[in-house]
Amino acid sequence: MSFSICTRAGLFACLLTLTAWTPAALSKGQSPHDVEVQQLAAIINRALESNPEIEAAQAAVDAAQARLVGAALPLNNPELELEAERTDISTHTLGISQTIDWYDKQDALEQAMQAELNAARARVAALRLTKSAELLNALGRVSTHHEITTLSKRRTGILERFARLAEQRHASGDIPQAEMELARLSLAEAVMQHASNGAELIQARSDFFSLSGQIPGSGVKFPDRLPAALPHTSDDEALARNHPQVQTAQQMAGAARQQIHAADQARKADPTFGLRAGREASENLVALTFSIPLQIRNDFRSTVDAAQAEALQAEQEAHQAYRNLLARLMSARKRYKLVADAWSLWVSLGRTSLQQRIDLLETQWQAGEMSTTDYLLQVQQTLDTQIAGVRLHGDLWDAWVEWLNASGTLDAWLNKTSKEQ
């Protein structure tokens, strides 16, 4: 039970105070926090520039732009007709005809294509936000696992030294065989745990490379100083409505509504007027022509019905996207408060020195004031506390990124420092 309590208490411990100080930046009056955020922004922006999914979404924008340009052009081209017949009487005619956009289908199509372009641009903005959050989370996992691996390596080193001392004391008859074997088993466990932590670090780096195409450096850190509390706002609904994902869903619903009008106009028959001139034998021929499709067998109403159903589907999906985002936003706010309160409690209690604690325990063991079992238990608890603190700080970073993502303010926070330069 005591071990469980100490482990849980370790949720309030962490030694993640390393910061990426750069003399050039600090000489301009930037705080270490601003430097860290600026470095993160550079990494994220560079990764976004070469992200295949974003490039694909941008290509969809270019395609929508091309369709809009095409929709601004006239729908129907004139038709030229040439006819020659040579029998007993030679006949030659030349005609030209033009289908008239009687119902202004071009304008309806142009509006539909403009709505599709707006939706495609909104999808790019939403995708950039999603990828930025994924990259920041991946960087957070890399930093967290790097710190944990460092601590587990230190634990292995401490237990290696302790195992050697235990063997020496056993050889001199100070401790029994069982205590020496316990020291060896503790070392073996530490080696296995270090290997497991190293594997997690490798996986975290691999995940980041998969997202960004970059190999994260060992010096990449996420800021240690994050807000103790989120800005108070009673208008979470406005944040949800303005979120890029909700805006994308609304733009898609608007595009679907525009398709109703375009489909209704497209089904209507347009008249075709023509002029034909020629010569038959010795006589000149001049004729005016008029034609229009008779939509008796098929009035194409089904295309309008389908567009209406698709618009209803898009509207309902937009409503659901808003609900999901609002619930996610409220959850992110509560989660951040929970984790930030725990982190603030640890900071307020103060951070003890890991090495001082280990040295004190070893001194007590060497003096015979502590058994080998108690020494190993307290060393493990001390190191587990530090590792649990690192994980807590990683949870705080995840909660912060999730809040920025859910509120749609990630880009503003990430690029604020660079924009102020």
Automatic annotation (TrEMBL):
Pfam families: OEP. Belongs to the outer membrane factor (OMF) (TC 1.B.17) family. Residues 297-324 form a coiled coil. SUPFAM superfamilies: Outer membrane efflux proteins (OEP) (SSF56954). This is Outer membrane protein TolC. It comes from the Bacteria. Residues 1-24 form the signal peptide. GO terms for molecular function: efflux transmembrane transporter activity. It comes from endosymbiont of Ridgeia piscesae.
